[in-house]
Amino acid sequence: MCPMTSVRTDEQASVRPTQEDEVAAAGSEVIGGPHGRRAGSAGWWNPLRVIVLLALGMFALGMVQKLPCYDGAWFSGQTSQYVRACYSDIPHLYNGRGFADGIMPYFERIPDEVSGGMEYLEYPVLTGLFMTVASWMTPGGGDIVEREQIYWMINAAMLMICAVVATVAVSRTHRFRPWDALLLALAPAYALTATINWDLLAVALTAVAMLMWSRSRPLATGVLLGLATAAKLYPLFLLGPLLVLCWRGGRWRAFGTALGGAALSWSCVNVPVMIGAWDGWLKFYSFSQERPVDFGSIWLILSQRTDLPLESTDVNNYAMILMLLGCSAIAALTLTAPRRPRFPQLAFLVLALFVLTNKVYSPQYVLWLIPLAVLARPKWRDFLIWQACEVMYFVGIWMYLAYTGSGDKHQGLPPEGYQVIILVHLLGTLYLSAVVIRDILLPEHDVVRSSGADDPAGGPLDGIPDRFVLRRHSSLTASTSSTEPKVHWGAGRPQ
């Protein structure tokens, strides 16, 4: 007879937050205390199912939070939907971008009396397709208010699917840390902003792309990143972290495959529209360039507190310069860090830099950062501090809009108060970025690596020796595994 062996499954080896995180352990007292040694994890209630169920519950609570607007505030005037903090673009754009009249996005001009001067849909092509499919499922005829309500409900159902996809992808990206996705499922800003706009489509595609990279599938990663970029521009920035990480790790083929897949899938979605409706396709990019300084940005504070003439073109240039300088600093950090940074850490830093320097910060943009923050720094205290700042911003922007839209009554938050709220948002993002940078410079503080892992989301880069670094080290471990031999480095290459 063969001796019986014990196989340690992913579920049995998974890291449980109540066993390593003091905040999670304290919070678990509400439901019976931390996970005990006799608590089983087998059966139907595995981590993934629990997390998905909680994500669905939080998404539903976010929909309930929009109930006052659904019941009339969307249609009774601007101030009411701001006071109740339940605004959403979705019902307004159903009629305002011609979907109620069956206008084909990009190919047909929107009448001025409908759009208020926006000639074409100002969203990327894949998001426009998402919006169009929802309009096809919305019954025609009848009262326009009822149709807008149905359109919002259909979009909410489709966005709920995107939220579940993103949650599953985050839970599976770090193979032995599925419970980290609880941060995503329970994030209050995630629930509050999920149905403001269509950002969750790009968020879901990006999350699955990162999952594919963690499974060493660079072509699938690139295809999904290209699709995500066809839905929203921000996923394009994730190619930068992949570039410098593959440079340091010498995995140029993997990066080239991902880049080629991204270009191919983006082209498949965009080129047909570019050929058939150039002006309509270009609208998203021209609108982004021409858009003036707007809500939530440091530029808005400067324009309101000073007499600086911050024209859109000038701010675009300033933001681009700051973005290039910041990305150069992140690249230098990557190539000089004592240990190769993890992919989610760099992805979060690049997106946070974009958010901090951009000329507008809509409240739903936090959705871009939440999955990356969960993977970069799965520490409940830091995550909740940042989320508290984002919830304050969510409330603050609506109160500011209520103030500006209430005429002489000035009910809401005045500009000075809104400027404080913007600073809270900026400081919260800077704080989380700072602790991620500390984890990169001092890898012993990285909770993901505390169990001996290298980069669970790194895929082709996980556990491999460096091939290029910029800083001399007297002795550097060639691989992150303690079983690998040490080599000496000089001028960035092994001697």
Automatic annotation (TrEMBL):
Coiled coil: none annotated. Pfam families: GT87 (PF09594). GO terms for cellular component: plasma membrane. One of its GO terms (molecular function) is hexosyltransferase activity. The chain crosses the membrane at residues 44-64, 150-170, 182-213, 219-247, 254-278, 318-336, 348-371, 383-405, 417-437. Residues 1-21, 475-495 are annotated as: Disordered. Belongs to the glycosyltransferase 87 family. This is DUF2029 domain-containing protein.
